[in-house]
Design a protein that fits this description.
heterodimer, A: 606 residues, mainly beta, 6% helix, B: 290 residues, alpha/beta, Rossmann fold, 2 domains, five-stranded parallel β-sheet, 11 helices, 19% strand, elongated, Peripla_BP_I (chain B), ABC_transpt-TYRBP-like (chain B), ABC transporter substrate-binding protein (chain B), signal (chain B)
């Protein structure tokens, strides 16, 4: 598979690199013109919430990561990308593509909705998305909404990670990229992409294979993925039709669980597809419709360490089909988006224990969900108000009403004040023993400013509650992010998040939630040489018997040298040193973080 | 509780809908930060109560011209080149533009159109080159299809100021680098136009090298090039230009004919310098705009 893929990429590169690109049109677009005056991050403001709006009008605490940022990190998976965002805590558990849990301001994986092209990646059984298994080659942008997003998306009490994939390249029939990296412990990542537009039809294809032997005993992983997008532009620029197919196959050895004398091997296959339409019905009214389907199939095999005998087989097969229709109406001060969403989900699980057949079980759960939502963005001078409501009817957990209201006020051209309040909910694990959803309120207030010369600063205070019949938890804290403007091609980034998470029923701190988190970065990019030294530190305050160790910063170094570049082609070699000082940072001794390791590679774009 | 929330939301949704007949209709290509800043600046000085906004990237195939006409505004604000080009059919409503680098290339030049061009006048660059940097020969690379009009304006300004403009036509970045080499020993200052054929990541490296090797200062049009080896840049502020356009729109709404409100260059520019480059080139670091 890997050899075949590399050969194919090499052949495609050789063929297409000989084809001359089409000359750019003389009438430069606004984006092209402004790109001459500003850095890309000074232009990017729009976010793909249900009602796209510029960040200056967004009351929510939103962070946007672009494809350029991902490239700068030499990242393999979405988890590695999220790990660099202030307020996001990722528990990287070994080789790239090993499943990693993550949290947003104290909200754990189960409360966070992860979407790719509008399709949720969270499984139905546990409501968890494995971001360590999501490739980054096809990602154009990742938008992270920190705080409840239920008024837009339904089950998203802790927030949303929205992955926007790349569009077919315009202005050229053939474009693409090839990427290969290799490192210690058999870590190898080969990827490629092809993209172009012929007339009104555009295509984007990406695929790759990532594998590694892991950094602990029994911790290897391998992932293969394919992604395809076809886009048809409706004549007269009235809209587009898109078809996407997204397939991933992951095999993971999860590690040694000595406390229960077991090892675990996971095989996971995922297929997601969408067919979507965007169409201008009138000058003010736009229709968007999406049909979506997904299939998740995982098998977990556990064996006894002492004897090597199989001890458990768990299999789960999930199918979801659904669709969404949205109407967006722009008039006067308002941008109103309303829509209806439907998902039919079915999950079949079987558990068998060869040594104890009496404990074997099989169960099937289903969940039909209807969601009705309406939101508005009212922009009145420097003031933007964003009221939103959503009503969800679920067959498994009843009905949920999720309102939110936010306001953003541009105090000056460089300072924005934000306030946001929302009610949200999270679907429970759909196992028979867990059928109670969690619900809660969150309020946030913040300020974003670049009034201080050479410095961008953002601060957010938050307080969130989540409750189910057995407990009520409260998470509150502050998040501060800072970035300097580039000076001599060099800039600094810093982030600090304090989260106090307590259970009100026991009046104790919730274990496993990072209490303090620091992110520091020193970056350099002169368009030939680039480098980033980034450090992450988290204090989990976990119980002593977890065996966690987290007194060290984990420092990573990413370097790149663009060997060759002309108008359409670029070649870069890169190098990454992970955990440079061999720091220890893990909340649970079962999942010790990887020690120092190195990798390097080559990236070609054309 | 739920009913109360729904009532509040219903009120919020309905609030503001009477704004059908806006005083000003704003048309912009995309929602981008500099455009938003320009709009905020415009609103600060135009003194209008109601503004309707049409964003082309969100309108898709919609007939924007018809929407503008139906709104019957007193003034249309076009932010960016794409918006101005789309509005060229409108002849009966005053159009004020802002954030447009080359307004004449849009085909929208008409008696009802005025605004603030994004480019700093050539005189200001040349005065700086001649006065402060004592450069009598100014080098210029341009793609006729992209910045031919600006180059023509530069030639006229150079003639007026007694500066020798050594210009080279190029049609690709590779050609730009070749032509750059022919300027060796023939120019005292190199002036960059906002030309995407000439200014690329690849050519900027060659330009920085040319500057260092030949001790030729480079004057750019945006501060982002200071980190690429340019000595100086004249920076314009979108909010400032928006405020300037707002004042022009106010005059029109107060009764002035569009012909009485001629197009303007950015009123305020900021000279930014890279002092390390200045030191390396042996130029006095306390440079001033002439």
């Amino acid at each position: 598979m890997k050899r075949w893929l590399l050969c194919a990429l090499l052949c495609l590169f050789t063929t297409f690199s000989a084809i001359s690109p089409i000359r750019a049109e003389d009438n430069a677009s606004d984006r092209e013109t402004l790109g001459l005056y500003y850095e890309p991050h000074d232009l990017e403001i729009a976010v793909a919430t249900r009602s796209p709006r510029p960040l200056s009008h967004s009351a929510e605490n939103i962070t946007v990561i672009t494809a350029d940022d991902i490239e700068r990190l030499n990242a393999h998976t979405l988890a590695e990308v999220l790990n660099t965002v202030a307020g996001v805590q990722v528990d990287l558990r070994g080789a790239p593509s090993i499943g990693a849990t993550f949290e947003l301001a104290g909200a754990t994986s189960r409360h966070i909705l992860v979407l790719i092209d509008g399709v949720t990646i969270n499984d139905q059984l546990d409501n968890i998305a494995f971001t360590g298994q999501i490739p980054v080659q096809n990602i154009e942008r990742v938008e992270i909404v920190k705080g409840p997003a239920s008024s837009a998306w339904g089950s998203a009490l802790g927030g949303v990670v929205n992955v926007v994939t790349k569009e077919p390249q315009k202005g050229s029939r053939f474009g693409g990229a090839a990427y290969f990296s290799g490192g210690e412990r058999g870590t190898r990542d080969g990827r490629g992409e092809l993209s172009g537009t012929m007339g009104s039809l555009g295509y984007y294809l990406a695929g790759g294979n990532l594998r590694g032997d892991g950094f602990r005993p029994f911790n290897a992983s391998e992932r293969s993925d394919l992604y395809a997008k076809l886009r048809w532009d409706i004549p007269e620029n009235r809209g587009t039709v898109r078809l996407t197919l997204n397939y991933q196959k992951i095999g993971v050895e999860e590690g040694l669980f000595t406390w229960r004398d077991a090892t675990s091997r996971l095989t996971n296959r995922q297929l997601f597809s969408t067919l979507s339409l965007d169409y201008a019905l009138s000058d003010r009214l736009t229709l968007s419709g999406t049909l979506k389907g997904s299939r998740l199939d995982y098998n977990r095999n556990e064996s006894l360490i002492s004897t090597g005998e199989p001890s458990a087989f768990i299999s789960n097969d999930e199918i979801t089909v659904g669709g969404a229709t949205l109407l967006t109406w722009r008039q006067g001060l308002h941008t109103v988006t309303g829509g209806v969403e439907y998902d039919h989900g079915k999950s079949d699980t079987s558990v068998s224990y060869p040594a104890w057949p009496d404990y074997n079980s099989a169960f099937s759960v289903r969940n039909d969900k209807w969601g009705l939502f309406l939101n508005d963005t009212i922009v009145w001078g420097p003031f933007a108000l964003t009221p939103a409501v959503r009503y969800d009817l679920t067959s498994a957990t009843g009905d949920h009403f999720s309102p939110s209201i936010g306001a953003a006020y541009s105090l000056t051209d460089k300072t924005i004040l934000r306030a946001f309040a929302a009610k949200g909910y999270s679907l429970p694990r759909l196992r028979p023993e867990f059928r109670t959803p969690e619900k809660g309120w969150s309020i946030q207030g913040g300020l974003e400013t670049s009034e201080i010369p050479f410095l961008w600063l953002r601060g957010t205070w938050f307080r969130s509650t989540a409750e189910d019949p057995t407990d009520r938890t409260v998470r509150e804290g502050v998040e501060v992010e800072a970035r300097t403007v580039p000076l001599f091609n060099t800039w600094l980034t810093a982030g600090y998040v304090f989260t106090d998470a307590t259970s009100r029923s026991t009046n104790t701190e919730i274990p496993g939630v990072a209490r303090d988190r620091w992110d520091l970065g020193l970056h350099y990019d002169d368009r030939t040489i680039r480098g980033a030294l980034t450090g992450h530190y988290a204090w989990w305050n976990t119980p002593g018997d977890w065996g966690g160790k987290y007194k060290n910063f984990i420092w990573d170094l990413n370097l790149g040298w663009r060997l060759y570049r002309d108008r359409t082609t670029e070649t870069e070699i890169f190098f990454t040193g992970h955990n440079l000082f061999n720091g220890r940072q893990y909340p649970d001794e079962t999942f010790i973080n990887p020690s120092r390791w190195f990798e390097g590679g080559l990236r070609i774009t054309w | 509780m739920t009913t109360r929330i729904l009532h509040i939301l219903a009120f919020l949704l309905l609030w503001g809908f009477p704004a059908f007949a806006a005083e000003v209709v704003v048309v912009q290509g995309e929602r981008m930060a500099p455009f938003e800043a320009a709009l905020r600046g415009f609103k600060a000085t135009a003194g209008v109560r109601s503004v309707e906004r049409l964003v082309l990237s969100e309108q898709r195939g919609a007939d924007v011209v018809r929407s503008v006409r139906e709104a019957r505004p007193r003034v249309v604000l076009a932010i960016g080149r794409e918006a101005l080009a789309r509005l060229k059919e409108i002849r009966e409503i005053p159009v004020v533009y802002v954030m447009v680098a080359t307004p004449e290339s849009t085909g929208a030049a008409s008696r009802n159109v005025t605004g603030v061009a994004m480019n700093v006048p050539a005189e200001r660059y040349l005065a700086f080159a001649r006065g402060t940097l004592a450069g009598r020969r100014v080098g210029l690379l341009f793609d006729p299809a992209r910045t031919g009009a600006l180059a023509k304006e530069a030639a006229q300004a150079a003639e007026r100021q007694g500066v020798a403009l050594v210009s080279r036509e190029v049609r690709s970045p590779r050609q730009a680098m070749q032509q750059l080499a022919t300027l060796r020993g023939k120019v005292d200052v190199l002036w960059l136009l906002p030309d995407p054929t000439v200014v690329t990541a690849e050519t900027m490296e060659a330009i920085a090298l040319f500057s260092q090797e030949n001790r030729v200062p480079v004057i750019a049009f945006a501060a982002k090039y200071l980190q690429n080896g340019a000595l100086a840049a004249f920076e314009v502020d979108p909010a400032d230009m928006g405020r300037q356009a707002g004042r022009m729109a106010r005059r029109i709404m107060d009764g002035a004919a569009v012909e009485q409100v001629p197009a303007e260059a950015p009123a305020r520019t900021t000279l930014r310098l890279n002092k390390t480059v200045a030191r390396n080139l042996g130029v006095s670091p306390d440079l001033r705009e002439e």
